[in-house]
Task: inverse folding
């Protein structure tokens, strides 16, 4: 009897020291190493292990990782291996992807043909105006469950009452070609919305106030012989966007676009040399940069007393903050003075002889 007790004691010491148990092997390589009769060979009918087999999973497990084999479908569980999850207090099938059981999980609504989020994170019902839904046809709704387009953020989807549903878009460094036709971006530089036509970004037309300037001269100004002279000190009748500087005569483009610019003037009657000319000029310049110009010319083959003058109307493509000035050049042989209100006769006798206007087209 004492001999058997002593052998059992030695056996317990060996198992505790190695902390590994082998079945069909005397050299276990893990805590429990079970090997087939034909190790690494063809399986036999008696190889393997049997875990506890049960017919249902109506009782909770007691430990995380507890493993059983369900012998048949039962109570929403399908046949196979199941383990106990003590954190979520449920049986999970081994190898099966688990559904999201959180309160705000996606749910299928076959009647409406959508999957959506009908509950909030805390489990309370989500109002339809805060719902997110995707239809079987691939349309997505935010704030409703009946989208009419690929992305519908209207809380009401009737033509007469679309409801709330603002969206926000950002800017992009992608070219219009890379973004593709139909792409939309926010232009942070010009503070506008652009769309891609597949080749270039174009400004989305809007009802913002377009630049419009109407000005005329009421103060005299002398124009020297053969000197480019900008016309300044204007009387402003209209300036919708504050883009015109009446002192310098400079119009600054509020944004990239096309502008119709007109300028006309007349001199007081005076002597001009034969073969002379006068020019109405629109000078375009970046701030502090060299100017380019377009002009019209009035020529005088014969000399004599003439009321000289010229006019120009031109559609100019301007960049944001680019400047355009009305300017005059003349080589009549002497200085000439602009004919303005009050040069002679009644106070309005010469009204309109020197005018400048700008109209933003697009």
Result:
């Amino acid at each position: 009897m004492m001999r058997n007790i002593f052998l059992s004691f030695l056996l317990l010491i060996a198992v505790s020291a190695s902390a590994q148990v082998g079945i069909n092997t005397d050299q276990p390589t893990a805590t429990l190493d079970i090997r087939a009769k034909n190790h690494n060979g063809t399986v036999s009918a008696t190889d393997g292990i049997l875990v506890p087999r049960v017919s249902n999973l109506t009782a909770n497990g007691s430990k995380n990782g507890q493993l059983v084999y369900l012998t048949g479908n039962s109570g929403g569980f399908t046949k196979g291996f199941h383990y106990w999850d003590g954190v979520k207090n449920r049986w999970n099938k081994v190898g099966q992807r688990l559904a999201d059981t959180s309160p705000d999980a996606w749910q299928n609504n076959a009647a409406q043909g959508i999957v959506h989020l009908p509950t909030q994170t805390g489990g309370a019902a989500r109002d339809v105006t805060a719902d997110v839904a995707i239809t079987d046809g691939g349309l997505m709704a935010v704030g409703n469950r009946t989208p009419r387009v690929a992305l519908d953020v209207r809380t009401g989807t009737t033509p007469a009452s679309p409801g709330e549903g603002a969206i926000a878009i950002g800017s992009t460094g992608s070219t219009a070609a890379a973004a593709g036709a139909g792409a939309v971006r926010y232009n942070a530089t010009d503070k506008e919305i652009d769309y891609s036509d597949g080749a270039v970004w174009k400004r989305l037309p809007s009802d913002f106030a377009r630049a419009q300037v109407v000005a005329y001269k009421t103060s005299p100004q002398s124009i020297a012989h053969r000197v480019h002279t900008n016309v300044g000190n204007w009387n402003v009748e209209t300036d919708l966007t504050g883009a015109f500087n009446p002192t310098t005569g400079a119009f600054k483009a509020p944004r990239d676009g096309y502008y119709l610019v007109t300028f006309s003037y007349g001199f007081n009657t005076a002597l001009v040399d034969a073969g002379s000319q006068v020019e109405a000029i629109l000078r375009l310049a970046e701030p502090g940069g060299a100017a380019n110009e377009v002009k019209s010319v009035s020529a005088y083959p014969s000399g004599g007393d003439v009321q000289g003058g010229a006019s120009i109307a031109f559609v100019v493509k301007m960049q944001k903050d680019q400047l355009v000035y009305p300017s005059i050049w003349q080589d009549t042989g002497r200085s000439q003075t602009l004919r303005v209100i009050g040069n002679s006769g009644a106070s309005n006798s010469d009204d309109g002889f020197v005018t400048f206007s700008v109209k933003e087209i697009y």
